[in-house]
Structures are given as C-alpha cells and as structure tokens.
Amino acid sequence: MDATFRLDWFSNRYVQLGASMQYNVLDRFLGGSFEVSRQFQSGGGGATSFQWQHRQQFNLSTNLNLSLNYVSNSFVVRQNALDRCRTPSR
Predict the structure, then answer these.
(1) Which of 57, 73, 77, 82 stands the most exposed, by the fewest C-beta atoms within 10 Å?
(2) pTM of the prediction?
(3) Is-contact 78 86, C-beta < 8 A?
(4) Sorting pLDDT into bands at 50, 70 and 90, what band is 87?
(5) How many helices (H) and strands (E) does the chain have?
(6) Alpha-carbon distance 6 to 76, whole Å?
(7) For the chain, domain boundaries
C-alpha cells in the first residue's frame, strides 16, 4: 500500500489538492487504486472528483475489474483542462 499527496497550481486559473492510494494484496489476488481531488477555480467555483479502480482474480477463469469515476462539476474541470489546441476563455 502507498499514498501520494499533491498540490497543483496554475497561476490565475486554479489550485487543485489531491490524494491517491494504491493497494495490492498478493495472497488474495486483488489490487487497485483510489484518488480524490478538489479543484478551486480562480474567481469562484470548484469541483470534487473521485476515482476508484479495482481488480480481483477469483480463479483462473473469473476476474472482476471495476472502474468508478465521479466529478461534481464537469464544467470547472473542462474549463481548466490544459488543451494545446484551445485557448482558455477568460
């Protein structure tokens, strides 16, 4: 198991705080990761996101793969995405 914490800052655009954790249980044949982040947009607004990836092998022919993603405000995330083909609106 491990954990990572991060702070992302983009001048005059947003600040984002995040934490992620990875887990792996060898004798149970399972592993995955979990991530949570909060983005604060300059001028107001924000978004919270959660991501969970899980994989588990029950036997040689049975597996479970799970992927969950949730974003509370996709407009804030889309507005602050770094896209080289698009100039950000102000």
Answers:
(1) 82
(2) 0.71
(3) no
(4) low
(5) 1, 5
(6) 19
(7) 2-79
